[in-house]
């Protein structure tokens, strides 16, 4: 089922989470270990992230450069189908612009359609390691809005090759990312919000936010979205802090602020077990307030270890 239909049919806040495909070589059992402890809380759907292959250049004895593509976490499409058919739960595979030509994106969408998957989260993806800024694949989409347009076009039977005949329309529900504390590359929140509106105008059905630790920022973001005419559901993304090093890592990687109270509580912890507990308590408080405010869904970032998410949802749902 489409995420938008799941949301529209529900009278109360729903629960979902996102997981990563296992590291190359690992088995589907890793996915099962993440999902099964959370099944009793009836996730409405599950997101599966996409990871851009890394390109490594190695000098050969001949002096020539060999270009090797290393896929660390392949399998988004397969993992999504595995979850859908093993557990009968709807899935939202993530798709990114980076590393794909438009033809390859179309092939991935056709595969997802054959697999009976109704949703995608359309993202640009981050810049390659060491690169100065994001570089699209030659012939690939440059921004998430271009990917949204491509999915929407396919939903209307419009393929990359304009001469394609025997057209089969897809019917994907499209989610996109939003940033309550603005995306790192945007000059200010206002222009970032206009980029978000462009994604919605291009056909996105709902928004999932980057993680945030201060609900006031989310509420303000929703107000600002509504003020510029974004009417689709906005789903808060939550990640419980679980390691002391998150205090520096999360702001650096995701360009988000951590409230001083949370920083102080984590700094008082003697070990990461205590940090994990602080993260759970903060997550419970955030989730309860968001649920009371009537958000459509609470979306948790699991990072593969579900015990902290389990403790939170046990208290909240
Ligand atoms: P875009 O919406 O394309 O925005 C990128 C930048 O371009 C922004 O600064 C925006 O303001 C700007 N911009 C957009 N349109 C215009 C325009 N017309 N003119 C000028 N500037 C413009 N990454 C992965 O690799 N795999 C994942 O599975 C993944 N999952 C994610 C899930 C969620 C919920 C979130 C929030 C992020 C996820 N990401 C993932 C990270 C995401 O790929 C990065 O944050 C990326 O840097 C931006 O992606 P986007 O889709 O928001 O890009």
From TrEMBL:
Pathway connected to this protein: Amino-acid biosynthesis; L-methionine biosynthesis via de novo pathway; One-carbon metabolism; tetrahydrofolate interconversion
Catalytic reactions on record: (6S)-5-methyl-5,6,7,8-tetrahydrofolate + NAD(+) = (6R)-5,10-methylene-5,6,7,8-tetrahydrofolate + NADH + H(+)
Superkingdom of origin organism: Bacteria
Keyword list, A-Z: FAD, Flavoprotein, Oxidoreductase
One GO MF term attached to the UniProt entry: methylenetetrahydrofolate reductase (NADH) activity
Gene Ontology biological process terms in this record: methionine biosynthetic process; tetrahydrofolate interconversion
Cofactors, names only: FAD
Assigned GO CC terms: cytosol
PANTHER family given in the database record: METHYLENETETRAHYDROFOLATE REDUCTASE, METHYLENETETRAHYDROFOLATE REDUCTASE (NADPH)
Family note: Belongs to the methylenetetrahydrofolate reductase family.
The protein's name in its UniProt record: Methylenetetrahydrofolate reductase
Organism of provenance: Acetobacteroides hydrogenigenes
Taxon lineage: Bacteria, Pseudomonadati, Bacteroidota, Bacteroidia, Bacteroidales
